[in-house]
Amino acid sequence: MAYQRGSIRLVSRKGGDVWMLRYRLNTADGQRKENTLPIGLLRDFSTEKAAWKEADRLGLLVRINNDDSGTRIRFNALAEYYLKADFGDDAVRPKSVNTIPIVEHYVRDYLIARWGNDLASDIRPLEIQRWLKALHTENGLAWTTVSKIRGIMHRIYKIGVLHERVEKNPVEHVETRSLSLYKALVITPQQTLAILNRLSNPLHFTLVLTCAATALRASEIVSLRWSDILWSDRQIRISKRWAKGADGDTKTAASNGYVPLHPVLAEYLKHWRTQTPHSKVDDFVFPSLLRFGRVPISASIFVADYLRPAATGAGVILAKGQRFGFHNLRHSLSNWLVNKGKVDPKTVQGMLRHSDIRTTLNLYTQDDQDEKQAAQGAFLSAVGLGSRLVQ
Hints:
This protein is mainly α. The chain has 3 domains: 1-70, no CATH class; 98-181, DNA polymerase, domain 1 (Orthogonal Bundle), CATH 1.10.150; 189-369, hpI Integrase, Chain A, CATH 1.10.443. 46% of the residues lie in helices and 10% in strands. The chain has helices at residues 48-57, 60-65, 75-87, 99-115, 125-137, 143-162, 189-197, 202-214, 218-222, 263-275, 299-313, 326-339, 345-352, 357-363, 369-383, and strands at 7-11, 18-26, 32-41, 229-230, 235-238, 241-243, 246-248, 257-260. The strands form 3 sheets. A 3-stranded antiparallel β-sheet has the order 1-2-3. The longest helix has 20 residues, at 143-162.
């Protein structure tokens, strides 16, 4: 094939219009098909002339005429390509509607903001590691957040290598800390009862009781319809979650499943169904009465207006800025079942629908002081000092 220069066109993307270099590529069967390479954003290169200059600087014209040439693509173009390839219809691992804006935020506000104008192949591992450490020490980001940013950058390069935009992944050997310092506040069954007693509205009472007994996530519990309550099977079906004003996929594949429906909880739900004006099969179990049942109750508004005040009124001590909501009920059930109820951890994992039992034990179950003291006492008894006082 003769030397080609290709052509440039603008393509609309969520992050803004992108200059793309169009060229012809020979396929294995002797055919020629059109291919494209990203050059940069329109906001960075306001004219076609400027885009051509950038294409020359990146060595794209050399690349499209020499299959063996190295790739010289800017990081911002590589990142935009990742957002297109890993979040589009052909993605192997589709992202939820909640995940997409979060990832785009990290990509554009952190990664592109720092590395956007650098050639992707020139960025060095030690530079990346020093920058990530500075995000924690100088910018105050939690290590868990820094670790997420590192993971996204690693994925950008991984997709780039897969699609032959770059040759190496400089993030491969970059290290961060990923241990979370967050420790959820857990409450006892007695405190749960005290909170329930402060909720006079039957919708609010049944909502909190159901969450406390099932450990459903807020987005899962508000998405429930009466058709999801399988009375005869004594189960509640979890097949969706409420996100961005519509039903969406569950958080993970493991989240899609069932939770038990004990007869006691079933009686409270049946009683609530006799009271709610929205009791049809396809109605929400916990509807927004202000919106005439067209959407479920808002979890965040309910927590701010009712659940958190009920908790503080019941004597739950919250430090300034400390969170308390549905997720605390989820943590509390897990913690009680493992430490006090002595329920097999695999059973608890199944109830919480965690894909990995380490999540159940390490993140959702805390040390129990009484249990540790009893264990110490058992050892002292074995030594023969269990009941002996110092003389």
